[in-house]
Amino acid sequence: MAVVSQAANLLEKAIGHTGDAVTEQNMTNPDRDREQYADPSGEKMKALVWMGKNDVQVVETYKPKIIEDRDVILKITGSTICGSDLHLYHGAVIELQKGDILGHEFCGKVDSVGPSVKNLKPGDRVVASFQIACGECMYCQKKLSSQCERTNSNKVENIMYGGRTAGMFGYSHFTGGFAGGQAEYARVPYGDVNLLKLPDDIPDEKGLYLSDVLSTSWNCVVDTGVKEGDVVAIWGAGPIGQMCAEMSFIRGAKRVIVIDGGPAAWRLDLVKSKTPKVETLNFTDLPKGTTVTSKLKEMEHGGPDVALECAAGEYAKSWTHQLEMLTGAETDTSEILNEMITSVKNYGRCGITGVYVGFTNHFNIGSIMERGIRFIGNGQAPVHLYWEELLKMLQDGSLNAGIMLSHRVDISEMDTLYQKFDARADNIQKVFVQTRFSDPPAPGTPELTSWK
Length: 452
Fold this sequence. Notes:
Oligomer: single chain
Distance between the termini: 32 Å
Low-confidence stretches: none
Number of helices: 16
Number of strands: 19
Largest sheet: 6 strands, parallel
Strand content: 15-25%
């Protein structure tokens, strides 16, 4: 994949961008052009940068400055690591460059605003959406912010997908090339659109997760159509899978079965401890001759009504898929997708939220057609469509984001956090990453963990 990523970088340079973005592209670290992008004060900040496959480092770089009229500069008070960050860490997402600042989930306090920003002022507490929306295009008018037409001019993505997503923070030049929020400061383009004020009764340890994980989980459940009485199976017991389980019950599901195994099997016990109604299936404990599909059909006549993919396409099990991914014959394995397709009832629904970046082989299209399976790409979650509703749910207590929060870490140790999180070590589920601007831990949230 590293070779593919570098080839994609060269291709992008050769064919150029589409030229229709309305915000600066490929500004992934102010240090790349200090005169144009760095704050004139010369203030430095800590930031987590990608340096190569399985290599991230905490470095000192320059505080960003306002470069466009609707920019907002944030003092970051909280960020986190996401399962999709591991795809960057592994080099599975194309068009990464050394020195890119990572991180797409963050909250903070407004440091400064551009002259056209009228709804925010310095000191306001806000959370950022992981996508960058213009607020005006066809998709933004429908609050489908993840598909904004005007913030990502990457031509390679357009060729691969037949269209583009919005620009995204800290997620390679494939999505526009924007510096991320695993840092002490971040520049937010169209800050008047892409920041949501946090009320006093919502601490950062809750509000932060409106940025991605809560919106992504809710989108997965709602978009796949989980309804009253459904039996739901979820592949992956990480934070997204855990919150999808909780949210499926909120939507009226009768049963929820969460599937995981291998080094991550401990997460099944964690999810069960937080949501006792959940049933679990450890695929590494299945006897010889028993598959995930056969076990699910044993647990529920005909299989579940709904299958939700909350893992991702880079984790191949079989030698066939490992070899094909290694040689570039495919970018993603179809193994989980095929398990989902064969597991659900006829006319069942499969929702795909785990990251898939390109092409796959050995996909069971026949079962989809013959059995009427609804195969739904949930897309990058349109955060703006949901985050106000989810904020109200956090306020009234109907949604508890705290069930996934396991650790608090300082940004200075974020490189170690990537290693631990990748290894599924230390029972790390969801993390709150503090900076020098963070408030003390909110009551009932984890104290600081240090590996020094």
